[in-house]
Amino acid sequence: MKKLLLILLCFPYSVVSQNFPIYLRDTVGGSINWAEVPESIIETSDYHYIYCGTKYNQVTSSVNITLNKITHEGLFVWTKEYYLGEGVEVASSLDGGYTILGRVEESFGEHNIIIIKTDEDGNELWHKIYGAVDGDEDPRAILETNDGGYIICSDSELNGLGDEVKVLKLDYLGDLEWSQNYGNGSLGDSRTTSSIQQSPDGGYVFSVNDSIVKTDAYGQIIWQAGYGIALTYDGDIKINSNGDLIICGGQEDPQNNFSTNLCLLKTNSLGNEIWRKYLGGSEDEYCAELHITSDDGIILFAETEINGDEEIYVIKTDAFGNQEWDFTWGVLGEDFSKSGLQMFNGEYIVCGILEDFGSGIIIRIDENGTITSIFNIPIKPKRKLQMTIDILGKQSKPRSNSPFIEIYDDGTFKKRIIIE
Questions:
Q1: Are 419 and 411 in contact (CB under 8 A)?
Q2: Alpha carbon 221 to chain centroid distance?
Q3: CA dist., res. 316 & res. 308, Å (int)
Q4: Distances from the Cα of 111 to the Cαs of 22, 104, 116, 175, 330, in angstroms?
Q5: Which of 57, 107, 148, 415 fits 172 for a cystine, CB–CB 3.0-4.6 Å?
Q6: What is the pTM of this model?
Q7: Which residues are within 8 A (CB) of 36 and not within 5 positions of it... i.e. 6 or more apart?
Q8: Angstrom distance (rounded) from CA 298 to CA 315
Q9: CB–CB of 86/102 below 8 Å?
Q10: Dihedral sign computed on CA atoms, order 176, 181, 185, 188
Q11: CA dist 404 to 16, 385, 389, Å?
């Protein structure tokens, strides 16, 4: 007797409903009870997303550091609140957990750095606080290092003197290994962007004022270079697979009413410029974050000004900084990007603020820069079968002449029937 296997449903991708955009606020009762700002987002090993944020509770007048997990469809898996303070950035850990960088107020309006280590479900394992008496910290970025520890950069003020850029190296338990200060000391403020990167040689790359600093593994400066662009607060730095630097900052355009445009440039590992490109419209633009995409291009999460209002602004370029598309989104008032990333299926998630609307927001856009209503999960060539169910959803073994559904570990499925 011959058996015939029919594949009744076999898409090249799985199509599921989605819940984006996500508005991060509660208005039960007609007023805003709380609003959350999504500060930083990362992708998890199971193709979902973790973001850390700052939750402003209008009822209790409190401000809390948060951590949330959402699925790729935009559904919340869990949400956690920790200490009074502001979330800054979240990093994944080698043990499968997460590390949150935050800012907490101590006394007299002074702030310290806080690190919160969690397990994979957001449960706190430990926390550490760093700061000096009569000091004020504005932490900007955290990165897990190759040895399982952490590197942090912060704008740091001591005794009311000018800000300096502080870099702290921590071990895997959050204990301080070394710290270094960079900048002008009491001669003037020094500031950094929201990025610090580890180079292939084990050293670090970050910005001090409007220059890029490269150090060894212990924070000793190897080279420092300026490129005529603003990097004092807005801007970002990434290192590609060849060790080259991709940098985004701002530069005034004297031929365009001195508006600030985005300047994207690439250097080699020694800081020698390879190319630069100017991006943006007729008004001001500022970069919050950049990433290198799967096609070796660049995605910029930024803000732009249109008719006096700020809007969320995303630009995709090729590997040479040439713009391929852009995306703007906003309501009336001040709206701007905070973070973003490329998703596993090639699309993008954007985290931002709708300031006048009183809400954080998370948006998903497709690979062409368009908000979509269908989420496509590409089939992985090495996907594994997780289970087989019947048409009623009960786990079962395949039987002849009865339809069954195979569910795979990447979320895709096939509906089959064996005819005898």
A1: no
A2: 27
A3: 24
A4: 30, 5, 16, 19, 32
A5: 148
A6: 0.82
A7: 24, 25, 53, 54, 55, 56, 66, 360
A8: 8
A9: yes
A10: negative
A11: 19, 13, 6
- Percent of the chain clearing pLDDT 90 (strictly above): 61
State how far the alpha carbon of 399 is from the alpha carbons of 40, 402, 405, 419, in Å.
48, 6, 11, 9
- The CA–CA distances, whole Å, from 332 to 30, 326, 329, 358, 364 equal 20, 20, 10, 11, 20
Q: Is the sign of the CA dihedral 122, 16, 19, 298 positive or negative?
A: positive
Residue count of the chain? 420
The structure tokens listed for 418 are 């064996």
Which residue type sits at 388? T
Within 10 A of 384 (CB to CB), how many other CB atoms are there? 8
**Residue numbers of the chain with a pLDDT score lower than 50:** 1-17, 186, 375
Tokens 């084990």, residue? 202
In DSSP terms, 31 is beta-bridged to: none
Cβ atoms within 10 Å of 295's Cβ, excluding its own: 13
Give the model's pLDDT for residue 394.
67
Strands (E), 280-400: 285-292, 298-306, 309-317, 323-329, 335-342, 348-354, 359-365, 375-378, 385-390
Type of residue found at 249: G
Which two structure tokens, joined as six digits, stand for 221?
């400066």
Cis peptide before 21 (omega within 30 of 0): yes
- The secondary element (H helix, E strand) that includes residue 402 is none
Q: Name the CA dihedral angle for 274, 279, 283, 284, rounded to a multiple of 10 degrees.
A: -60
